[in-house]
């Protein structure tokens, strides 16, 4: 493979094969039912084959398709257990794997970005990629001064592929809806599209990472790799070794899971106050636990700029919801444009809808579990229930969309970790408007 498939017709054909392939398996499943296989056996086989096709196609396409799959992966904990097993492994693989570029293609990009004498910048360079991202892959190397470094090289054609994918994925959003019950996929796609141009320039990502690294320099709980060099399609940072969060999720001891959950929560809520930025790409592939017990954070292509920290109205809403002050809550939601103008939603219905989401803040600590998240997804996704109707009356203003996505993504990871976290203390310290 030399580069990302760029032509829209080629990429659209691959994406279009998803719903066709899934429909074909459903028909085949009915045939197996007729010859005596149980519903459970057939459903298990269908889910496994669907997951295999879905994430194989997304991984091959890389670009926006793979990035979308990574964004969906944090919601894996919300999928009911009887359906989740086949997806879990495929999702985890997608977070950190894709077909690699050939060495000659990597060298061509490095020469174009760092100059023809790029090899003189490195004492060593490993042509075999150590990891893959949505629009690039990472190589391990040694900088000319002896530092071990990670070299992220953007896939040629990533810019065209990203935009083509996101346009096409809008058409197939219903295919992915089954992975995120209770959530609307289209705003996620729109928000991703809004961030694409910014993420394509690794110089911007380098500036973001420098800002985070400066804010967390010497921190005892978080480590941010320092930037060594940056160009539009190449980013060189210090190499950090650690245990990927996906491994902790898969087989980590409970104490390690709790530690990871605590550090992730603290980082998420504290970074806007400390750096004026919010890391906006929360999936397990972007986090590691180092040997000294710190959380290493990777990939700063997507950030929310919050120079004044987290918005104070969010803290007020959370507190009012927790204290069930329904009329005040509804007034605040209307003032902040969280309620559709033509809505006749009732104050008590809003408290009932939001109440379970703030449950983690009612006690000193909270155990985040897949079962809890599944319950929330089922509750707001039940077309017959009042919570579903209430949800349709609410709106998410554009300035809060990225914050909401990050919070939901981080919550999904906490549930994958099955972590017990002192959430109330963390929110009290870092979320303006909640405790003051």
Automatic annotation (TrEMBL):
A molecular function (GO) term: kinase activity
Sequence ranges assigned to domain Protein kinase in this UniProt record: 124-436
Tell me the keywords, alphabetical order.
ATP-binding, Kinase, Nucleotide-binding, Transferase, Ubiquinone
Q: Check the record and name the InterPro entries matching this protein.
A: ABC1_dom, ADCK3_dom, Atypical_kinase_ADCK, Kinase-like_dom_sf, Prot_kinase_dom
Q: Which family does this protein fall into?
A: Belongs to the protein kinase superfamily. ADCK protein kinase family.
- Cross-referenced PANTHER family: COENZYME Q8 (PTHR43851:SF3), PTHR43851
Protein known as: Unusual protein kinase regulating ubiquinone biosynthesis (AarF/ABC1/UbiB family)
| Species this chain originates from | Kutzneria viridogrisea
Taxonomy, top ranks, is: Bacteria, Bacillati, Actinomycetota, Actinomycetes, Pseudonocardiales
């Amino acid at each position: 493979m030399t580069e990302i498939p760029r032509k829209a017709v080629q990429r659209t054909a691959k994406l279009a094969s998803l719903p066709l392939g899934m429909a074909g398996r459903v028909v085949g499943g009915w045939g197996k039912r007729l010859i005596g296989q149980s519903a459970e056996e057939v459903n298990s086989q269908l889910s496994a084959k669907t997951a295999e096709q879905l994430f194989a196609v997304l991984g091959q396409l890389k670009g926006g398709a793979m990035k979308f799959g990574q964004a969906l992966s944090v919601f894996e904990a919300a999928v009911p257990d009887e359906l989740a097993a086949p997806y879990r492994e495929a999702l985890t693989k997608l977070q950190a794997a894709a077909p690699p570029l050939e060495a000659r293609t990597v060298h061509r990009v490095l020469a174009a970005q760092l100059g023809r004498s790029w090899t003189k910048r490195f004492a060593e360079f490993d042509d075999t990629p150590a990891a893959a991202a949505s629009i690039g892959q990472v190589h391990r190397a040694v900088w000319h001064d002896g530092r071990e470094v990670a070299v992220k090289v953007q896939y040629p054609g990533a810019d065209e592929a990203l935009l083509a994918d996101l346009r096409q994925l809008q058409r197939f959003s219903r295919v992915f809806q089954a992975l995120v019950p209770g959530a609307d996929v289209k705003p996620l796609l729109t928000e991703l599209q809004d961030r694409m141009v910014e993420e394509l320039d690794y110089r911007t990502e380098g500036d973001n990472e420098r800002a985070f690294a400066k804010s967390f320099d010497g921190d005892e709980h978080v480590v941010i790799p320092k930037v060594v060099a940056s160009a539009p399609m190449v980013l060189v940072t210090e190499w950090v070794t650690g245990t990927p969060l996906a491994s902790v999720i898969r087989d980590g001891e409970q104490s390690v899971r709790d530690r990871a959950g605590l550090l992730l929560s603290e980082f998420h809520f504290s970074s806007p106050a400390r750096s004026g930025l919010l890391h906006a790409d929360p999936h397990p592939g972007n986090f590691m636990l180092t040997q000294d017990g710190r959380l290493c954070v990777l990939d700063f292509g997507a950030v929310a700029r919050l120079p004044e920290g987290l918005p104070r109205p969010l803290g007020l809403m959370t507190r009012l919801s927790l204290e069930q002050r329904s009329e005040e809550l509804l007034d605040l939601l209307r003032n902040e444009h969280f309620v559709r103008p033509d809505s006749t939603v009732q104050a008590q219905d809003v408290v009932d809808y939001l109440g379970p989401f703030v449950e983690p803040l009612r006690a000193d600590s909270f155990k985040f579990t897949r079962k809890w998240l599944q319950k929330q997804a089922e509750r707001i996704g039940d077309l017959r229930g009042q919570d579903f109707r209430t949800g349709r009356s609410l709106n998410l203003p554009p300035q809060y969309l990225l914050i909401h996505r990050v919070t939901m993504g981080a919550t999904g990871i906490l549930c994958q970790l099955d972590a017990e976290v002192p959430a109330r203390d963390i929110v009290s310290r870092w979320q303006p408007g909640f405790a003051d």
